[in-house]
Amino acid sequence: MPMIEPIINNRYRIEEEVGSGGMADVYKAYDLSEKRFVAFKVIKSEYCINQSYVKRFEKEADTALNLECKNIARAYDYGAFIDEKGVSRNYIALEFVDGCSLKDSLKAHGAVSPKVAVNITSSILDALECVHNAGYIHRDVKPQNVLISVNKNVKLTDFGIAKEVNADTKTYDSRDVLGSVHYISPEQASGDLVTAASDIYSAGILLYEMLVGKPPFDGDNPVQIALQHVTGTIIPPMDIDPKIPPSLSDVVMKATAKSPSDRYASAKEMKLDLQKAILHPNRRLIDFHESIDADARIRKRRRTKLWHIIVPVVLAVVLVIGASLSWYFVSRRAEADNSLARVPELYGKTIEQAEQLLASRGLEMHVSGYAYSDEFSADLVCNQEPVPGTTQNKGSEVSIVISQGSDAVVMIDLTGLTLEEAKEKLGGIGITISGITYVVSDEKHDTIIHQSIAAGSDAVRGDEIDVEISSASADH
Fold first, then answer.
1. Which domains, ranges and CATH numbers included, belong to the chain?
2. Which of 48, 49, 71, 425 has CA atoms 20 to 30 A from the CA of 25?
3. 25, 140, 250, 463: which one is catalytic?
4. Which pLDDT tens digit goes with each residue over 288-317?
């Protein structure tokens, strides 16, 4: 039996309770006015006397009402009613999703296939792109807040702490944060500025869990788990399960980088790499060693910050003095040995700039190859060996890789073109025709009438496309 009145405000008929969270209960209800089922979210009576909770609930309603995306549970109505005890209680009427949460699905079935994981994550990223474009940060992306309908539609929900910058997300033993500590970003865990990149991190953790079957970090208490996000190392999914494609493992590692600046710049960018990963499962999307080095640097910085909070300042002074002395002796030894040179950072430099910079330090340059890069524009250095800071003998070679620009392209419209015309146009964007089928059609003879990758869709250089060509007869 429902714990509230059976009919609210002469409009919502309560059917059954379907969930209960930290500050609200959720019921399945029938909207008598609009003749549809809704998820009726009601603030718990004990929180109604605390205005901070009421304002937070109002903020959630305001955020949800301002968002409209097929992958976000839509908000229909916000209001209040007087319950049987005379308490005024706020409610939000939301789109009712007939299905289950991603958490329940993972609990019941475990890890999913790479294709299913990519499809679900792509839908979450579409929702986050909408959220971020509207000026919000979700801040609580977790399996409990992802709903999957019986028709396999994916919906992001629960904007209770969206765009709020307060102590709630730092209090690991609160009821509201306890369930999300497995998915919070390092900056959330350490009390730093939270941005859209924090949602990207959480989406990466979700993708990890879908592929592996469990989150990367666990522990005896929430604080222990939160600290692992700050200082711990995420093992690449492909190292845990060799069946996970390397490209998909790379997406996880980039999305969950410790530093927000090392993650994807947007949800859209991450989705594009997911599409590449499915098309080319064995193509590496990031330089794994550089990613590990970047994560190590940020972990070191964050560990230092945590120790500053926990131990006396004098320890930090000792560490700084030790580092200074080490640098002093290394520098003195380098100066004493005139035959050594430090390798400069060449990323983002032109070939001419790289050559001049190396020559000024007595080093030689060798162009070892060319590669596509989403990070660096065409004709700029996108990789180097040895890495910056390495000490080398003067006269040694430093190998560089030159960017050919991004391999992401937009598929062109081939309909109405002859096979030769299509091949010529596709050659300009690095796509080849793989399969050709002749179909009896009233369209112009020997022209393309259908293509397997739709015009305007995202594609990757090196992809293959199938086409159907109009034929006057079945025998061609």
1. 7-95 (3.30.200.20), 99-307 (1.10.510.10), 324-403 (3.30.10.20), 408-471 (3.30.10.20)
2. 71
3. 140
4. 444 445 455 555 555 544 444 444 444 444
The larger pLDDT score, comparing residue 311 to residue 150, is at 150
For residues 19 and 32, the answer to whether their CB atoms sit within 8 Å is no
The H or E element containing residue 269 is: helix 267-279
Half-sphere exposure of 447 (CA within 13 A, CB side): 11
- Of these ranges, 24-38, 40-54, 454-468, the one predicted with the greatest mean pLDDT is 24-38
Query: Is residue 80 within 8 Å of 89, Cβ to Cβ?
Result: yes
Please state the three-class secondary structure of 168-211 as a single string: HHHCCCCHHHHCCCCCCCHHHHHCCCCCHHHHHHHHHHHHHHHH
Instruction: Single out the residue of 177, 196, 180 nearest to residue 146, CA to CA.
Output: 180
**Strands 7-8 vs 146-149: parallel, antiparallel or unpaired:** unpaired
The H or E element spanning position 247 is helix 246-255
Each residue of 45-55: pLDDT tens digit?
A: 888 888 888 88
Containing H/E element for 148?
strand 146-149
Question: Residue with structure tokens 């550089």?
Answer: 290
Helix (H, G, I), strand (E, B) or coil at 220: coil
Question: Residue 416 — left, alpha, or beta (φ > 0 → left; ψ -120 to 50 → alpha)?
Answer: left
Q: How far is CA 346 from CA 147, 301, 363, in A?
A: 46, 24, 13
Q: Is 442 among the residues known to form the active site? A: no
What phi-psi label fits residue 105: left (phi over 0), alpha (psi between -120 and 50 degrees) or beta? Answer: alpha
Collapsing DSSP to helix, strand or coil, 267 comes out as helix
Burial group, residue 261, by CB count within 10 angstroms (0-12, 13-18, 19+): exposed
What confidence tens digit (pLDDT) does each residue in 56-99 have? Answer: 888 888 888 888 899 999 999 999 999 888 889 999 999 999 99
Structure tokens at 341: 């040179």
Q: Is pLDDT above 90 for 391?
A: no
CA dist., res. 346 & res. 388, Å (int): 8
Token couple for 133: 């474009």
For 154, the 3-state DSSP assignment is strand
